[in-house]
Design brief:
Layout lengths: L7 H19 L4 H8 L6 H4 L1 H24 L1 H12 L2 H7 L3 H30 L4 H30 L4 H19 L5 H9 L7 H4 L3 H11 L1 H30 L4 H29 L2 H20 L3 H29 L5 H30 L1 H22 L12 H7 L5
Helix pairs in contact: 1-7, 1-8, 1-9, 2-13, 4-5, 4-7, 4-17, 5-7, 5-9, 6-7, 6-9, 7-8, 7-10, 7-17, 8-9, 8-14, 8-16, 12-13, 12-17, 13-14, 13-15, 13-16, 13-17, 13-18, 14-16, 15-16, 15-18, 17-18
Subcellular location: Cell membrane
GO molecular function: transmembrane transporter activity
Membrane topology: Multi-pass membrane protein
Length: 424
C-alpha cells in the first residue's frame, strides 16, 4: 500500500536513520578543515581540500551504483552495506598519523554516504507514492541536514573543550553503531512498493520503460530530458558551493580571529536553516511546482555567497550563512522530488542514483575550483567565483526546465521511443 500515512511507522524510522547518516557526515564539518591546518600543517588550500575531493568522487560514483544495486538486490541490503563500510571511519580520523589516512577515511565515508543516503531517499519515494513526494523529500533531507548541523555544533564544542581529536569523532562512532543496528533489526524492504506503483502507472506505455538499460537511463537523466538534465546540473552546482562552505569557510573564519565556538555556530547555522527549511519547501513544491523553488533557491545561494565574500565579522557572516541555508532549503528537496516526478518507477532508483552522481560530483568540482582559485587569489575571490557559477546555474534552470513536472513520466514517451532497443 502506498502513501505517507499508510507507511508512517517505516517512514519515520527511515527519517531517524537518515538523521544518523547526516550526523556521520557532520562530525567533520567544523573540525576537519582545522585539523588540516593546525595538526597536519597543510598550507595550500588545494592540499587541504583533498579530503573533500576524495569524498566527492567516492560518493558520486557510489550514488550511481546504489540505484542499480538497490533495483537488483533490494534496498535494505544496500543500506546495511553502507553502514558496515562506515565502521572504520572514526578510527582512521582519530588515529591517522598522516593526512593520507584522513583522505582514506573520506573515501570510505563517501562510499558509505552514497549507499546509505541514496537508499533512504529511494525507500521514502517507494513508500509515499507520487502524491506526497515533495513532502517526503523535505522530511528526508531535513532530517539529514539537521543531523549535520547538530553534530557540527556539538563537535565544535567538543573540540574547544577537549581538543580536535579524539572527542569529536567518538560522536560519529556512536551514530554509526546506532544506524547499523536500526537498519539491520527494524528497517523493512520497500522494493515491492515501487513495483506496485509501476504496475498502476498512468504515464507513458510500460513497454517504453521496462527495457531501458542503465546507459539509456543515464543519457535521459544527464542530457536528453530537459527537466532531468536541468536538475542534474543544478544539483552539481549546489554541492559545489556546499563543498566550498565545508572546506574553506572554517579557515576563512579562523583567519578573521573567530573562536572555535563561533566557527561551530557558523558551521551549524547553514545546515540547520537548510534542514529545517526543507520541512516547508518540500511540501510547498508539491502544491506550487518545482521549478520556481529551484530557480529562486539557486539565486538566493548566489547572493549569500557574494555577501560572505565581501563581509567580515561574526554578525555579518551569520546573516549570510542563514541566507545560504534558506536558498539551499528551497532547492535541495525540490531537486530530488523533480527527479521522482519525471522518472518512471521502473527506473527511478537508477535515475536518482545518476542525479546524485552529478550532484555529489559537485563536492569534487568544488574542492578543485575553490582550492585553485583560493591559492591563486585568496578565499574571498574563490567564494565570488562560486557565487557566479551558482547564479548561472539558476538561470539555466529558468530557461531549460519545464514547469510543473508533477506527473511521473510526463515528458518521456518521445524520448524513450528513440532510446528503446528494437524488439525482434
Amino acid at each position: 500500500m502506498l502513501g505517507l500515512r499508510q507507511n508512517l511507522a517505516q517512514f519515520t524510522l527511515l527519517v531517524a536513520v537518515n538523521a544518523l547518516v547526516g550526523g556521520t557526515l557532520g562530525q567533520e564539518r567544523t573540525v576537519l578543515p582545522l585539523l588540516a591546518t593546525d595538526v597536519f600543517g597543510l598550507e595550500l588550500y588545494t592540499s587541504s581540500l583533498t579530503y573533500i575531493l576524495a569524498f566527492g568522487v567516492a560518493k558520486a560514483a557510489t550514488n550511481y551504483l546504489a540505484g542499480t544495486l538497490s533495483d537488483r538486490y533490494g534496498r535494505k541490503p544496500v543500506l546495511v552495506a553502507g553502514w558496515l563500510i562506515a565502521l572504520p571511519v572514526p578510527v582512521l580520523l582519530i588515529y591517522g598519523p598522516s593526512w593520507d589516512w584522513i583522505v582514506a577515511a573520506n573515501v570510505l565515508l563517501g562510499i558509505s554516504q552514497g549507499l546509505t543516503w541514496s537508499t533512504t531517499v529511494v525507500m521514502k519515494m517507494d513508500l509515499v507514492g507520487p502524491h506526497r513526494r515533495g513532502a517526503a523529500m523535505g522530511l528526508n533531507e531535513a532530517a539529514g541536514y539537521l543531523g549535520v548541523a547538530a553534530t557540527a555544533m556539538a563537535t565544535g564544542y567538543l573540540a574547544a573543550e577537549y581538543g580536535l581529536r579524539p572527542a569529536p569523532f567518538l560522536l560519529g562512532a556512536a551514530y554509526i553503531g546506532l544506524g547499523l543496528g536500526l537498519s539491520v533489526l527494524t528497517v523493512r524492504e520497500t522494493r515491492d512498493h515501487a513495483r506496485l506503483e509501476a504496475a498502476g502507472h498512468a504515464g507513458a506505455r510500460p513497454e517504453a520503460h521496462a527495457g531501458l538499460s542503465s546507459a539509456q537511463v543515464f543519457t535521459l537523466t544527464s542530457f536528453r530530458d530537459r527537466s532531468l538534465s536541468s536538475v542534474s546540473q543544478a544539483g552539481m552546482v549546489n554541492n559545489l558551493n556546499d563543498g566550498l562552505a565545508w572546506g574553506l569557510f572554517p579557515v576563512l573564519f579562523a583567519a578573521a580571529g573567530l573562536s572555535l565556538g563561533q566557527i561551530g555556530i557558523l558551521a551549524a547555522a547553514y545546515p540547520a536553516v537548510w534542514g529545517a527549511g526543507q520541512l516547508a519547501t518540500g511540501a510547498l513544491s508539491d502544491r506550487w511546482g518545482r521549478k520556481g523553488f529551484i530557480v529562486a533557491g539557486m539565486l538566493t545561494q548566489a547572493l549569500a555567497l557574494a555577501l560572505i565574500a565581501v563581509g567580515s565579522g561574526f554578525g555579518a557572516w551569520l546573516v549570510a550563512m542563514v541566507l545560504l541555508g534558506v536558498g539551499t532549503a528551497m532547492a535541495y528537496p525540490t531537486l530530488l522530488a523533480a527527479i521522482g516526478d519525471v522518472a518512471h518507477p521502473a527506473w527511478r532508483a537508477r535515475s536518482v542514483g545518476i542525479y546524485r552522481l552529478w550532484r555529489d560530483g559537485g563536492f569534487a568540482a568544488g574542492a578543485v575550483i575553490a582550492g585553485l582559485v583560493a591559492d591563486a587569489f585568496g578565499i574571498p575571490t574563490a567564494v565570488t567565483v562560486v557565487a557566479a557559477l551558482t547564479a548561472a546555474s539558476g538561470a539555466l534552470v529558468a530557461v531549460r526546465m519545464r514547469g510543473r513536472d508533477h506527473t511521473p513520466g510526463l515528458s518521456l514517451p518521445a524520448a524513450t521511443r528513440h532510446l528503446r532497443s528494437p524488439r525482434p
